[in-house]
């Protein structure tokens, strides 16, 4: 009988502890930090133009297109790009967020021209206007090899971004292979509906 009472008491205590645990508020997740808020300036629609070259002996290529940027909650921006490069269509999808544990911006890039997923890490400069992201990817000047790439997004104004893409050459020097402009499209009455 003593065992039955002890067992019953233990069972009641276990049920009470479980009920109290379930009744507690779920843990509160950390809110966005100033670095997440910085990403909100990308949100909107942009018209893009750029010029680039994939080698010193190659003619420059021109590219034009659009980017639709939207926030996922308060932590991530998604940039959807559609463009034309020398008459060929291309689509790209970029995500950028901030990893508070790494104290770095992080992101990804995939597009319709290659099967490589770019994985970024980077920082915003002291002026607060320029985000620089670095990734490793296929070296188009030395097929079969990987190299480091650097993409910089500098907000000249809230409606104008200068984009610069560079790669690390075999001599250890950064080579700028693309520069471009993104200009925010004006919001029209039909956009706000």
Task: Explain what this protein looks like in three dimensions.
Pfam families: DUF1579. The chain has 193 residues and is mainly beta. It has one domain (34-184): Lipocalin. It has helices at residues 2-23, 34-39, and strands spanning 44-52, 61-72, 76-85, 88-99, 104-111, 118-124, 130-138, 146-157, 160-168, 174-184. The protein has a 10-stranded antiparallel β-barrel. The longest helix has 22 residues, at 2-23. The mean pLDDT is 88.
Biggest sheet strand order reads 1-2-3-4-5-6-7-8-9-10
Radius of gyration: 25 Å
CATH class: Mainly Beta
Largest sheet: 10 strands, antiparallel, barrel
Order of helices and strands: HHEEEEEEEEEE
| CATH architecture identity | Beta Barrel
Low-confidence stretches: none
Strand content: over 45%
Q: Total helix count?
A: 2
Mean pLDDT, all residues: 88
Count of the domains:
1
CATH H level, superfamily name: Calycin beta-barrel core domain
- The helix content, as a percent range, equals 10-25%
Structural class: mainly beta
Instruction: Give the CA-CA distance, first to last residue.
Output: 73 Å
Shape: globular
Find the CATH topology.
Lipocalin
Work out the number of β strands.
10
